[in-house]
Amino acid sequence: MSISRRTLLRNTAALGAFAGAGLPHIWIKNADLAYAAGGEIKVGVLFSLTGTTAIIEESLNKATLLAIEEINAAGGIKGSKIVPIVEDPASDPATFSEKARKLVVGDKCVSVFGSYTSASRKAVLPVFERQNNLYWYPTLYEGRECSKNVIYTGAVPNQQQDEFVPWLVKKFGKKFYLIGSNYIYPKEENNYCKKLLEKLGGEVVAEEYVPLGHSEFSSVINKIRSTQPNVIFSTVVGDSVVALHRQYKAAGLDPEKMPMASLTTSENEVAAMGGEAAAGHFTSAPYFMVHKSPENEKFVEAYKKRWGADKVTHFVSEACYFQTYLFKQAVEKLATSDLTPPNIRDAVKGQSMIAPQGKVQIEPENLHTWLWPKIAQAKSNGQFEILVEAKEWLKPVPYAAYPGQSCTEKGLVEKS
Amino acid sequence: MDQFIEQIVTGLSIGSILLLVALGLSIIYGSMGIINLAHGEFVMLGAYAAWVFHTYLGLGLLASLVPIFLVVAAFGWIIERYVLSLLNNRPLDTILATWGVGIMLQQAVRLSVGSELRYVQLPPALSDSMDVFGISVSSYRVFLFVVSIALFGATWLLMNRTPVGMKLRAIIQDRSVAASFGINAKRVYALTFAYGAGLAGLAGALVSPLKSVSPDMGTGYVVDAFMVVVLGGVQSLAGTVASAFILGELSGGIAFLQNDTVAKAIVLLAIVVLIRFRPEGLFTARVRA
To answer: Is residue A23 part of a domain?
Structure first.
């Protein structure tokens, strides 16, 4: 059969007319209905399953899926099931952005849970702001961000340091050695730490950054030996944490005299370095696996049952778990026809629940979370012992290190 | 003065780890001309083998060193026999092939044992520190230094004092002439590659208690290993040793005076400049043409 130009034109026009009549939903812009179509609420789950940070993000993926399965098993949200669409951004910020676009525009997810690193969060931010969608970010991070399209459920610097630094100064002394990985998070945390130390009359003997993934710390340890600080304040991340702790231990340094105080060492890293290398060092975070509460016992038991008895929960996977429940609470408040990302954002403001760490609440002003700071010491059995628990929950202040700025409901405001 | 000695000892320790990782690559690259981009993955396999022996068979690290060498060497032998030997005399193709093998090994490990960091115990007998020239040094680092020198010695003997080494050197000079004297070049190549892979596996197992074990740990090591081999001069075992310790002292020293980020950049820059003026590396093996 030969196709002349005329028949081709006619057939194409006919096909177009059929598509216009027969598949109307392509042409009608009715995104709102699609968000809860057929008793299903689609959400994206965007944690790396391959690449460098898969080491930790895999556990975040697992905690999020566990919460979704629990919610669905208990009847879903007002009869609708949550359908997780899992994508693997492969630890690469550009892939994060691409997959985020696919989830938001292609799959029409009403929210996306994702990211561990700040780099990946910054990469997806434009997608969520342009599409006015909602990103749920579970990781402790450096603050200094005020997006109306992100719900931040991890700690910001004031929530990890306000109790921790004065406690360290009182217990060990005023000389601090700051060491971190070379990127934005450690620099902002150290910036805040220096401000706190200034108020307390403390002294920074060195501030140093190693490349990401660095694993040779013998020169750093020599410097620590020669400067003799009271506290080694560490914001080293990933497998470097493991190398630093193991080489500290092998070099024969003593945690009782010169402990490492970390904002990033969780049960996950401790399992990898071995309890004997972690023992005696301190971490500040809102959650530890040993925390005693009925909610936490339930969480830990369910996590191990679902993913394996050798698995640990930690301060980022806990946030993944409770933020999924906060999502559920927010959606419950809305009529099915009102289910849009901006409405969910408005509904989640001020929402609270009893999380494994204690009662948490989304601050309406800045969409960060009220949390319960804790200070704990690692034990040789691979778990922590909680030494100090905050008597009150702490308000998130993402611009704590920048007194001239604050994050409000209208966005970032410069105070004169 | 103490600080100076401390820093020299630190440099020796960093250098010995570099030597450990680079030795296998030096053999494979220097004698066979294969640019083995899967070298880092052999290191990784060795570290995982140590973890498997420790976790499932209850063997300590020291007891499992010989089996680890044999396991990873067998792996290398299979890859030489069924992938690389089919690409004879096409060095560019071997780059691509070994790179692909590396990616497959990484993903295979990730899919089979998961991507979390794994834990290999430091041998309890070596977990203390000891005095070297009045400086307190981790016993395990001293042990690594001794092992790396011993492995270098064994490799040198193998290359220069055994029939296999002699055959290999004959093949390097002229493969067809060697073959006409009845040397089975295929077999010698496969053994050489297996030996290099086994050394990489040992290196992975030995560094695992000081660092961490993860599926992509090899990426960093393969870069380090190539820097050592290229700086030292291809085909020169002694050059590999010298350049490992030069790089160790250099990066340790700069890291102490400045920091590790700067050290990494300066060392890389220094190598680039040196290669510009001495493309054959610091040391060259003189071969009669």
So the answer is: no
Q: Per the domain annotation, does A237 fall within a domain?
A: yes
End residue of a domain, out of A285, A303, A320: A285
**Chain A residues in contact with B118 (beta carbon < 8 A):** 272
Is B284 contained in some domain? no
Contact B122 A52 (CB under 8 A): no
A144 and A165 co-located in one domain: no
Whether residue B85 lies inside any domain: the answer is yes
Within a domain: A213:
yes
- Each as own residue / partner, the long-range contacts of residues A165-170 (CB below 8 Å, 24 or more positions apart, any chain) are A165/A193, A165/A196, A165/A197, A165/A200, A165/A202, A166/A196, A166/A200, A167/A375, A167/A388, A168/A230, A168/A231, A168/A233, A168/A261, A168/A282, A169/A197, A169/A200, A169/A202, A169/A231
The pair of three-digit structure tokens given for residue A233, joined into one six-digit string: 């304040």
| ipTM for the complex shown | 0.85
Judgement on whether residues A114 and A210 belong to the same structural domain of the protein: no
Using a CB–CB cutoff of 8 Å, tell me whether A211 touches chain B: yes
pLDDT digits (tens, 9 = 90+) for B205-253: 999 999 889 888 898 899 999 999 999 887 788 899 999 999 999 999 9
Whether residue B127 is contained in a domain is answered as: yes
Q: In what order do the strands lie in the sheet with A369-370?
A: A352-355, A358-362, A369-370
CB-CB under 8 Å, A209 with B261: yes
* A254 and A205 share one domain: yes
| A243 in B contact zone (CB under 8 Å) | yes
Q: Tell me which of A218, A227, A241 to substitute to probe the interface with B (most B C-beta atoms closer than 10 Å).
A: A218
Best residue in B212, B223, B258, B264 to probe A by mutation, most A CBs within 10 Å? B212
B167 touches chain A (CB under 8 A): no
For A346, the domain range is: 29-154+290-372
Q: What confidence tens digit (pLDDT) does each residue in A202-259 have?
A: 999 999 999 888 889 999 999 999 999 999 999 998 888 999 999 999 888 999 999 9
Q: Do A37 and A129 belong to one domain? A: yes
CA angle B262, B263, B265 (to 5 degrees): 65
Q: Say how many C-beta atoms besides its own lie within 10 A of residue A6's C-beta.
A: 8
Nearest to A218 among B10, B220, B264 (CB): B10
CATH classification of the domain holding B240: 1.10.3470
pLDDT at position A43: 96
Q: Which residues pair with A208 in a beta bridge?
A: A179
Chain A residues with CB inside 8 Å of B6's CB? 222, 225
What pLDDT is attached to residue A30?
Answer: 47
Helix spans in chain B (H): 2-27, 39-56, 65-82, 91-113, 139-161, 163-173, 175-180, 185-207, 218-232, 237-257, 260-277
Residue B219 belongs to a domain: yes
User: Looking at the structure, do residues A295 and A208 belong to the same domain, yes or no?
Assistant: no
B152 touches chain A (CB under 8 A): no
Question: DSSP secondary-structure letter at A284?
Answer: E
Residue B226: domain span: 2-277
Domain match, A84 and A143 both = yes
Q: Give chain B positions within 8 Å (CB) of A59.
A: 116
Q: Is A269 on the interface with B (CB under 8 A)?
A: yes
User: Does A404 map to a domain?
Assistant: no
Residue ending a domain, among A266, A285, A304, is: A285
Same domain, A270 and A164: yes
Shared-domain flag, residues A147 and A102: yes
Number of domains in chain B: 1
* Domain count within chain A: 2
DSSP annotation of B29: I
| Residues in A touching B137 (Cβ below 8 Å) | 251
Q: Is A62 within 8 Å of chain B by CB?
A: no
Task: Please report the number of interchain residue pairs, chain A to chain B, with beta-carbon separation below 8 angstroms.
Answer: 115
Interface contact B256-A182, CB threshold 8 A = no
Q: What is the CA radius of gyration of chain A?
A: 24
pLDDT for position A38: 78
